[in-house]
């Protein structure tokens, strides 16, 4: 019955996609563009939930994707259910299936960023919801199985780790104990993965394949990441440091600085990309080498990368308070990719304060493409909102003057 149902759903989906593709070929290019524009506007850009603080905002497409995943898991765990034992078994199987994409990595997954080309905000949203589903399914599986068998030490440890991961993943815990959350979350996730290998019921069936795939994905991701970090931070050039330049603000403490990284190996930075920065010699709680924070690349050339840093609590405040002008640095990246905008006639950039750092490389790229006649842009407009002129203007105006005069 289940094999027939799976075959029917797969065949119907394939035929439906083929018919949609054929229908799209019958539509004129203008009509097709209008349809795609409508779908982008209503699905990709329209927001379901706008957050004042926190992580990414939820668009219609992201909301629908999460809703489909939740509905699929609920349906798969409850459809034609016979007894509690089968319910526990289904939850355990679904837990292992959902566990696989979670071990692609978190915020710095090279597989997601470079191979799958999934935007960081969408992947993190998927990671959070799959994690929540896994925690619920794992706990339900453990509690449901407890009525039929006696708990072992391994099963108690698994439930404890799932509970710890779930409790530490709440928004307010992540926001106010960010560094603690990152380290404890990683340790708990690895401990959970290792403990699952000792789960007596798991190794008796084919579900162990999912556990092996999850372990392999995480291991491959980490090996690639370590090799990449070693390549970025070692080379023939003698320099490999971070130079800090503070910009004074009128009648106020310094609120902005640029951090210029001298690269040991030249690497190309594309507009919209960001790097993770670790400063071993500028320690916070004596653990500078363990902390890694993301910053958008504001400017780059063959030998240097420049970041604009705004003063805030935590890691950035430690940078501002240090008396050092130069520091050793470990760079992980770059990550991310900006959507192509060379085919648009008019481009409007809007930024507030330090947010202009995300636009500078993109503006330079558009001006260069326009000069080389490889972009359609005819009008480029930048709206930059500043509370006070002296807060960030000293850092940005020289770059804007260069863009206007030299390009």
Automatic annotation (TrEMBL):
<dbReference type="Pfam" id="PF01794">
    <property type="entry name" value="Ferric_reduct"/>
</dbReference>
<protein>
    <recommendedName>
        <fullName>ferric-chelate reductase (NADPH)</fullName>
        <ecNumber>1.16.1.9</ecNumber>
    </recommendedName>
</protein>
<feature type="transmembrane region" description="Helical">
    <location>
        <begin position="60"/>
        <end position="81"/>
    </location>
</feature>
<dbReference type="Pfam" id="PF08022">
    <property type="entry name" value="FAD_binding_8"/>
</dbReference>
<keyword id="KW-0813">Transport</keyword>
<keyword id="KW-0472">Membrane</keyword>
<dbReference type="GO" id="GO:0005886">
    <property type="term" value="C:plasma membrane"/>
</dbReference>
<dbReference type="InterPro" id="IPR013112">
    <property type="entry name" value="FAD-bd_8"/>
</dbReference>
<dbReference type="InterPro" id="IPR039261">
    <property type="entry name" value="FNR_nucleotide-bd"/>
</dbReference>
<dbReference type="InterPro" id="IPR051410">
    <property type="entry name" value="Ferric/Cupric_Reductase"/>
</dbReference>
<dbReference type="GO" id="GO:0015677">
    <property type="term" value="P:copper ion import"/>
</dbReference>
<dbReference type="InterPro" id="IPR017938">
    <property type="entry name" value="Riboflavin_synthase-like_b-brl"/>
</dbReference>
<dbReference type="GO" id="GO:0052851">
    <property type="term" value="F:ferric-chelate reductase (NADPH) activity"/>
</dbReference>
<dbReference type="InterPro" id="IPR013130">
    <property type="entry name" value="Fe3_Rdtase_TM_dom"/>
</dbReference>
<feature type="domain" description="FAD-binding FR-type">
    <location>
        <begin position="216"/>
        <end position="341"/>
    </location>
</feature>
<keyword id="KW-0406">Ion transport</keyword>
<dbReference type="GO" id="GO:0006826">
    <property type="term" value="P:iron ion transport"/>
</dbReference>
<keyword id="KW-1133">Transmembrane helix</keyword>
<dbReference type="InterPro" id="IPR017927">
    <property type="entry name" value="FAD-bd_FR_type"/>
</dbReference>
<feature type="transmembrane region" description="Helical">
    <location>
        <begin position="180"/>
        <end position="199"/>
    </location>
</feature>
<keyword id="KW-1003">Cell membrane</keyword>
<feature type="transmembrane region" description="Helical">
    <location>
        <begin position="150"/>
        <end position="173"/>
    </location>
</feature>
<keyword id="KW-0812">Transmembrane</keyword>
<dbReference type="GO" id="GO:0006879">
    <property type="term" value="P:intracellular iron ion homeostasis"/>
</dbReference>
<feature type="transmembrane region" description="Helical">
    <location>
        <begin position="6"/>
        <end position="24"/>
    </location>
</feature>
